[in-house]
Amino acid sequence: MGTMPLTPADIREKKFHTVRLRPGYNEEDVDELLDRVEATLVALEGGPRTGPLITADEVRNARFRTTRLSPGYREDEVDDFLDIVVADLAGRGLGRTSGREQPPPLPPRAAGGPAGPGTASRTHGHQPGEPPRHTGTGMPGRPPRRFGMTPEDVRRQQFATTRLTTGYNEQEVDDFLDRAEYTLAMLQQGRPDQVSLTAAEVERVQFATTRARPGYDPAQVDRFLDVLAEELHQYEQS
Question: Are 106 and 125 in contact (CB under 8 A)?
Fold first, then answer.
């Protein structure tokens, strides 16, 4: 493609289409990352330096929350543009951080650790060596289609993982399903005052997405959440 280096204006004026009826990237998360890219290019051009220079690795490993019921940037457009940014930064010698600033290999943070710049605050990784709880063999992506979903149904739910396409952050999905399992247990015990999850929350939930590491298949997770929301609706209306 073109060989002209990117300018701060290229970043500042970049526009993405928004989507409403399918998953998109959280606009604030993307804008925050691009602000750092713009600041880095300004500094490289001799302007004021307002913080550490962003590296190609940081951009490549950036993860964004996904939107399901609110507008978000088209994921493919953002990914394509970030590929250009990565190549540009690498060409300027900013391929990766050095010394102690080099981020550790995946996962980038221990579960529950603070999010770094350009990542969503709700993005958490697995502890090293700890397999995700909701993966494995079996019949992935086939939630029970009956009223009376049990906590065990949630605990045993499995999703296929993606590597080359966008997936949902596994730790976030697992944590959410832990809340769903507890909620169903409380409902079945006749203790609705103890639930930690409502149907509305299930319908609104947004998960961070993974690009350069495995993640849960979004279509399978979304189908399961639809069934879970309907299940909770029936409890709430009874």
Answer: yes
User: The pTM is what?
Assistant: 0.44
Q: Which two tokens stand for residue 123?
A: 């993005």
CA–CA distance, 42 with 50 (Å, rounded to integer): 9
User: Is the Cβ–Cβ distance between 64 and 120 less than 8 Å?
Assistant: yes
| Least confident stretch, 11-25, 92-106, 189-203, 215-229 | 92-106
CA distance 88 to 226: 41
The whole-number average pLDDT for the span 177-183 is: 88
Among 74, 66, 65, residue whose Cα is nearest residue 16: 74
Percent of the chain with pLDDT over 90: 24
Task: List the domain boundaries for the chain.
Answer: 8-101, 151-237
Per the CB < 8 A criterion, the answer to whether 134 and 154 are in contact is no
Between CA 65 and CA 72 the distance in angstroms is: 10
Cβ contact 193:199 at 8 Å: no
